[in-house]
Specification:
Blueprint (H helix, E strand, L loop, with lengths): L1 E6 L4 E4 L2 E2 L4 H11 L3 E5 H4 L12 E5 L11 E3 L2 H14 L5 E3 L3 H7 L5 E7 L7 E2 L9 E6 L3 E3 L2 E10 L3 E5 L2 H8 L10 H13 L4 E8 L2 E9 L7 E7 L6 H14 L5 E5 L7 H9 L10 E5 L6 E8 L3 E8 L5 E8 L7 H9 L19 E2 L4 H15 L17 H11 L7 E2 H8 L10 H9 L12 E2 L12 H19 L5
Parallel strand pairs: 1-7, 1-8, 4-5, 4-7, 5-6, 16-17, 23-24
Antiparallel strand pairs: 2-3, 2-9, 8-12, 10-12, 11-12, 13-14, 14-15, 15-16, 17-18, 19-20, 19-22, 20-21
Bound molecules: NADP nicotinamide-adenine-dinucleotide phosphate.
Length: 512
């Protein structure tokens, strides 16, 4: 929401109901800026327009206390809360249109705090005036962001200056005394009495997952409401939305998000719902309540805390078996886990489940939705580029193009014995196998009976966090039985066959 105004050197804007001066160049610019947009003005300013009629090719909103007043096709509003509520609705209904406050003095004064920008024409002279714009000289709320060159028309110098609203936003956990101020803001879809608002907030608090409610304050005044909801219980996903009749800049919005994150260090993944979405509260509850990421509309923005040690996740379709799940560190290019999510398997790891839901890969029961997109890597936003690179390395291995995926990895939790076993397994050549006992013989001292350690080797294989990188599918029973594999024996069989088919090609000496 922006103000358009022409002021003389003393912030004068009008005299005896009329403009101070008519500058053709400036009026042309006014028309160009406001055409096809929304204009808001007071009843007295209407009298200064051509034939005292609403402006053409614009949606006109006129403020008056006169209930019988009409000026078709303009919309008439009778008080400030009514205007603010209507403006919030229009903002959502006509997202592409800008709202311009175009005067006069009383309307500028009332709506100035709600605007994010002033497009001011400074006329370099002093007129006799009786209507003034608020004096912004030295204002800490408004900073000049752009000053155009002086122009001249009929000996009158004028220039365009943009002012940007500098807010000092803070948020705090909602306190009872804020509710009455929130009620006055006419937040759309919400009741306008403090009593009804309080009971609604109580219901929100008691709902599954609970809502965290914060007030947005600008230099101490309550100007809006923030709501944080965990739509999937125990997941790391939090949906964040806010409502205010004030026009906020991008940096104001970022400040709200930052402060929510600062207050809640445990919030890791935020789905920020743009204000637009709040028009339809049914839709909002659908978004907040959904378990399936496919319903998240495109204008939701996912934010991760870069400073929290989180895991980045990707899902790679793996033939008819289901998905390969790849976990990497959030802030370092290292894979820390590979697992299999089979078509009939329910994901029980809540982090993985919410990541899969977010990508639209999990059904309502936590089973994979298989999308027919071989070679596609579905990665979240966190460390996405690396996940795609590592995923492609795995796909290269699975296509029989390389003997081992060249992926940087880190073993997060492991014992010394497990690491010894995995080291030996990594030494088994591509296309070959070794038995559990053979591996045991390589890792236990000669003085020990290695046969007693075959089961321990099996356990270390089962605990392998990085199948395919640590190729435990190459470890088999002593009578050539495949025995077991974390992803299932059929996958083990598939991998061994893949390696046998490609071993000759891949292990051929380079000079051949
Ligand atoms: N330089 C510029 O850029 C520029 C731009 C526009 C206007 N102007 C000048 O500004 C002067 C007019 O300013 P103004 O302050 O006298 O008049 P105004 O703001 O144009 O209109 C005031 C009228 O608007 C209605 N109104 C205002 N706030 C309201 C509210 N909260 N609820 C209900 N109705 C409300 C009232 O109408 P009712 O009395 O009918 O209830 C009030 O008398 C003129 O000289 C004009 O030329 C200059």
């Amino acid at each position: 929401m922006k103000i358009v105004v022409a002021c003389d050197r003393n912030w004068g804007i009008g005299f005896e109901g009329d403009l101070l001066v008519h500058i053709r160049g400036d009026l042309k610019r006014f028309q160009a800026i406001t055409t096809n947009n929304i204009v808001v003005y007071g009843r007295k300013s209407l009298a200064t327009f051509p034939a005292a009629q609403p402006l053409k090719n614009r949606l006109n909103l006129i403020l008056t206390t006169d209930k019988d007043f009409s000026a078709p096709p303009a919309l008439i509003v009778h008080n400030l809360p009514e205007l603010l509520a209507l403006l919030q609705e229009l903002k959502l209904q006509f997202a592409e249109k800008t709202i311009y406050i175009i005067g006069g003095a009383s309307v500028y004064e009332q709506l100035l705090p709600y605007c994010d920008e002033i497009l001011l024409t400074e006329i370099d002279t002093e007129f006799t005036a009786d209507s003034y714009f608020p004096d912004l000289t030295g204002s800490e709320n408004w900073h000049r962001s752009n000053i155009g060159p002086w122009q001249e028309e009929k000996g009158l110098r004028y220039r365009y200056i943009n002012y940007e609203h500098i807010r000092k936003l803070t948020i705090r956990r909602l306190v009872l005394s804020d509710v009455s101020q929130l009620a006055k803001l006419g937040l759309i879809g919400l009741p306008t009495t403090a009593k009804q608002l309080r009971s609604l907030f109580r219901i929100w608090n008691q709902a599954d997952g609970g809502s965290l409610l914060y007030s947005i304050l600008d230099r101490g005044d309550v100007i809006g409401l923030v709501r944080a909801v965990q739509p999937v219980l125990n997941s790391d996903l939090v949906c964040l939305s806010w409502q205010t009749p004030h026009s906020l800049t991008q940096s104001d919005c970022e400040s709200i998000i930052d402060q929510v994150l600062n207050i809640n260090p445990e919030f890791y993944r935020l789905e920020v719902i743009s204000e637009q979405e709040l028009v339809n509260s049914e839709k909002v509850s659908a978004i907040l309540g959904t378990r399936c990421g496919q319903h998240f509309p495109a204008h939701c923005k996912t934010l991760f805390r870069p400073d929290r040690t989180g895991l980045a996740t990707a899902f790679i379709p793996f033939r008819s078996f289901g998905y390969l799940v790849l976990k990497a560190l959030a802030t370092e290019d290292k894979v820390v886990g590979i697992s299999f999510w089979r078509t009939d398997e329910i994901l029980t790891d809540s982090d993985l489940l919410s990541a899969a839901e977010h990508l639209g890969l999990a059904d309502n029961n936590g089973r994979p939705i298989i999308l027919n997109a071989d070679q596609t890597i579905y990665a979240g936003e966190l460390n996405r580029d690396y996940l795609i690179q590592a995923g492609n390395d795995l796909l290269n291995y699975l296509s029989g193009n390389v003997a081992s995926p060249s992926i940087q990895y880190e073993l997060l939790h492991s014992t010394k014995f497990q690491r010894r076993v995995w080291q030996e397994i990594m030494a088994i050549p591509y296309g070959s196998t070794a038995t559990y006992e053979q591996i045991a013989a390589r890792v236990v001292p000669a003085t020990e009976n290695h046969q007693n350690y075959a089961r321990a080797v099996g356990n270390a294989c089962a605990a392998n966090p990085l199948p395919l990188i640590i190729p435990c599918h190459r470890v088999i029973g002593k009578d050539s039985n495949l025995v077991g594999f974390s992803g299932g024996v059929d996958i083990k069989d598939y991998l061994l066959n893949l390696e046998m088919e490609n071993a000759q090609k891949l292990l051929r000496p380079i000079n051949e």
